[in-house]
Write a structure and sequence with these properties.
Number of domains: 1
Structural class: mainly alpha
Strand content: under 5%
Number of strands: 0
Helix content: over 70%
Shape: globular
Number of helices: 8
Order of helices and strands: HHHHHHHH
């Protein structure tokens, strides 16, 4: 796997103009990822065999396999985007990550639309996610704090969440509303962490990887907000 040269400096060590350019590129790619996700989701919803296949995976052991496959693809894509020197490779990882998100979201979005008869619920969940994301991002930019210390907490929280999901399948208990609320909190922490990484720790050629890290955190929040709203 290709890796960046060690002479690259973190964005925090660059001039204000360079930092601003990096941040702008990162958030432009984040917006592109969201738009691409929406476009792919729309196309997938028009293909019955894909919808039926994904719907068949949302119960039992199949869903556990989907989650672990998704985690593998996510880690692979983020690592590839962060390490690759080739822009073509970075964008291939970008597309792979967005496609994986679109596939795993397909069942919950399909059910949300089928239940309500419109995309209103999806739009409301998306709006709330955007509102929370904007507020959390503002905290980092206004305070200037580096939230790198959250990495260990997020790692432990993620492992506990996976353990509970697997345990729920194995022992037949349901993860209710409070689990979804806690996962929204975990996603908020991930947004704090990723935003501070963008401000201080990525280097200037890693804007694709930076946008993917932030996109993943936003989609985690969107998923559980959508679950909370669907349970009403």
């Amino acid at each position: 796997m290709e890796t960046h040269n060690s002479t690259y400096r973190p964005v925090a060590a660059e001039s204000a103009v360079v930092r601003a350019t990096f941040i702008r590129k990162t958030y432009m790619h984040l917006a592109l990822a969201v738009a691409l996700f929406a476009g792919i989701e729309y196309v997938l919803l028009q293909i019955p065999i894909v919808v039926e296949t994904m719907l068949a995976t949302i119960s039992g052991f199949s869903w556990i396999l989907v989650i672990f496959a998704f985690m593998f693809v996510t880690n692979f894509a983020e690592s590839l985007a962060a390490r690759a020197t080739s822009k073509a490779t970075q964008y291939a990882a970008f597309g792979l990550f967005v496609l994986a998100e679109a596939l795993i979201f397909l069942p919950i979005i399909f059910i949300g639309i089928a239940t309500t008869g419109s995309v209103e619920l999806i739009a409301q969940a998306g709006t709330l996610t955007l509102f929370l994301f904007t507020g959390i991002t503002a905290v980092v930019f206004i305070t200037g704090e580096d939230f790198s210390m959250l990495r260990s907490i997020l790692s432990i929280g993620g492992m506990l969440a996976i353990g509970l999901i697997v345990g729920g399948w194995a022992f037949g208990f349901t993860l209710g509303l409070w689990f979804s609320i806690l996962m929204v909190g975990l996603a908020a922490g991930a947004i704090l962490y990723q935003t501070s990484q963008i401000m201080y720790h990525y280097h200037t050629e890693q804007y694709v990887a930076a946008s993917l890290g932030l996109f993943g955190a936003i989609m985690l929040m969107f998923w559980y907000i959508l679950r909370i709203m669907s349970s009403d």
